[in-house]
Amino acid sequence: MMGGPRLEAEILKPIADLDFFDTAVEDELDPARLRALDALLVWGTPIGPGTVRHLTQCRAVVRYGVGYEKIDVASLAAAGIPFANNPDYGTEEVADHAVGLIVSLQRRLWEHDHRARTYETRWQANSLSPLRRSRGASVGVVGVGRIGTAVVNRLKPFGYRIIGYDPLQPAGHEKAVGYERADDLKGLVETSDIVTLHCPATIETRGLLSAETLSFFKPGAILVNTARGDLVDLDALHEALRAGHLAAAGLDVLPNEPPLPHPLLAAWRERADWLAGRLVVTPHNAFHSDEAGIEMRTNAAETVRRLLEGRGLRNRVSVP
């Protein structure tokens, strides 16, 4: 935690003492200190059954971020400990990051940058084609919740045709937000020039973009993923890019972070000519800005404070 827990201490100081576990390794959490906690704030440390059994007087576990794949919510529920995440921060940042990837990949900016290094006698004549204008191109948004909606709103002024797929949104949501509704994922990817992912990693969505699903993409389509790494089969993405079926991809998230060795990432690191400028990878920091970091920590600490003051637990996550 950058700068230590001083911000949280200022928020919680009037009602609670703060104990700071300076580790991301679950086995290094001290059982005696866990047993003394009234609430637990957690960032990247996994919380499994071994930790939960020591939270004997804990009234809630609160995750600093949105996703909670590393939190055993079922074990917490079995122990009678409610869990909350922190969805009300970083929405603007992730949406901006996604739109930045969409526009720059569509305009082939990184590919122009890579290839322009070799141009000498000819310069402006080296325009890449195909390169479509934004107005008339279609963007498929998979997951039209908070962030997906923010992406839709940011894309509208560019003139894109925007298609959304989200079975969790009620009928008419597309009319309120302003996008065309796709009935299924296959229909969305078949009609989209660019596909951007904004859904959580669940049993239903892990491996969402398999080799089969990627085969349904329009030839020359672009994929952007600022959601969760395991939504996309990396082997299948490698093949789709290598074969030229996909024009480009922008990834802020990967199945393993830091990434494990993989042929696609090796080609990216080496700036292989066949991939240069067609794959952009950022290190899972789409959510970040200086302001978002403060907002995240403040909101999470305020969630704990409200609980300890008897005002209930906001953003509570229910076990299915």
Structural class: alpha/beta
Oligomeric state of the chains present here: single chain
How many β-strands, per DSSP? 10
Walk across the major sheet and give the strand order.
6-5-4-7-8-9-10
Radius of gyration: 22 Å
Order of helices and strands: HHEHEHEHHEHEHEHEHEHEHEH
SSE topology sketch:
Elements: H1 6-12, H2 31-35, E1 40-42, H3 49-52, E2 61-63, H4 73-78, E3 83-84, H5 91-106, H6 109-116, E4 138-142, H7 146-155, E5 161-165, H8 173-177, E6 180-181, H9 185-191, E7 194-197, H10 211-215, E8 221-225, H11 234-242, E9 246-251, H12 263-269, E10 279-281, H13 290-308
Parallel strand pairs: 1-2, 2-3, 4-5, 4-7, 5-6, 7-8, 8-9, 9-10
Task: Describe the fold and architecture.
- It contains 13 helices and 10 strands.
- It has helices at about 5-10, 30-35, 50, 75-80, 90-105, 110-115, 145-155, 175, 185-190, 210-215, 235-240, 265-270, 290-310; strands at about 40, 60-65, 85, 140, 160-165, 180, 195, 220-225, 245-250, 280.
- The strands form 2 sheets. Strands 6-5-4-7-8-9-10 form a 7-stranded parallel β-sheet, sandwiched between helices. A 3-stranded parallel β-sheet has the order 1-2-3.
- The protein starts with 5 loop residues before the first helix and ends in a 12-residue tail after the last helix.
- The relative contact order is 0.14.
- The model has no long low-confidence stretch (mean pLDDT about 95).
Notable characteristics:
alpha/beta, three-stranded parallel sheet, 320 residues, 10 strands, elongated, seven-stranded parallel sheet
